[in-house]
UniProtKB/TrEMBL annotation:
<protein>
    <recommendedName>
        <fullName>Pectinesterase inhibitor domain-containing protein</fullName>
    </recommendedName>
</protein>
<feature type="domain" description="Pectinesterase inhibitor">
    <location>
        <begin position="32"/>
        <end position="178"/>
    </location>
</feature>
<dbReference type="Pfam" id="PF04043">
    <property type="entry name" value="PMEI"/>
</dbReference>
<dbReference type="GO" id="GO:0046910">
    <property type="term" value="F:pectinesterase inhibitor activity"/>
</dbReference>
<feature type="signal peptide">
    <location>
        <begin position="1"/>
        <end position="34"/>
    </location>
</feature>
<dbReference type="InterPro" id="IPR034086">
    <property type="entry name" value="PMEI_plant"/>
</dbReference>
<dbReference type="InterPro" id="IPR035513">
    <property type="entry name" value="Invertase/methylesterase_inhib"/>
</dbReference>
<keyword id="KW-1015">Disulfide bond</keyword>
<keyword id="KW-0732">Signal</keyword>
<comment type="similarity">
    <text>Belongs to the PMEI family.</text>
</comment>
<dbReference type="InterPro" id="IPR052421">
    <property type="entry name" value="PCW_Enzyme_Inhibitor"/>
</dbReference>
<dbReference type="InterPro" id="IPR006501">
    <property type="entry name" value="Pectinesterase_inhib_dom"/>
</dbReference>
Length: 185
């Protein structure tokens, strides 16, 4: 009888230990994932925006740097498309004057170029061509930056467009940061 209660106590202790170990691993992995995003974003010019944009995607919880790179490229693609859609709607507004139409058209082209550049990134990441990843991510980063510079003053740029630009620049900078880390491995 004594051995049966010892076996039960041992089983309970083992069960408790396994639950505690599982919790510890879960907490450790979530901290590692958050640390990876924080580390990547801390190397960008917009660390807060970068962190918010990356962490808004549940796939960014990966502990793998290369996988995070693919997530960032996917987010960048969506951000560039969103910016293009916004610019198309701004161009269609009847109250948009000729000067703004010219600026918006130029910005639309900038965002299109960025989208083309971003479209090449997954293939370069997959083949571990980090030189090309860096070149194309930098080129993609220049699209929204050039658009921002088209406005006479920052206050002339519509807030939704500025927000879209900030997000795209932050996520392209994250791709660059990830690329730099991958090159160093």
């Amino acid at each position: 009888m004594h051995s049966r209660s010892s076996q039960m106590a041992c089983a309970q202790n083992l069960s408790s230990f396994l639950i505690a170990l599982s919790l510890l691993l879960t907490i450790s992995l979530s901290t590692t994932n958050a640390d990876l995003v924080d580390d990547v974003c801390s190397k960008t010019s917009r660390p807060i925006t970068c962190t918010q944009v990356l962490q808004s995607d549940p796939r960014s919880k990966t502990p793998d740097l290369l996988a995070l790179g693919f997530v960032a490229v996917d987010i960048a693609t969506n951000q560039a498309r969103s910016g293009k859609t916004l610019l198309e709607s701004l161009l269609k507004r009847p109250t948009t004057g000729p000067k703004l139409k010219t600026i918006y058209s130029s910005c639309l082209e900038n965002y299109g170029d960025s989208l083309d550049d971003i479209g090449n990134l997954s293939g370069f990441l997959r083949s571990k061509d980090y030189g090309s990843v860096g070149a194309y991510a930098s080129a993609a980063l220049s699209g929204p930056d050039t658009c921002d510079g088209s406005f006479s003053t920052p206050s002339d740029e519509p807030l939704p467009l500025k927000a879209a630009s900030d997000k795209l620049q932050a996520i392209c900078a994250a791709v660059l940061s990830i690329n730099n880390k991958l090159q160093g491995q």
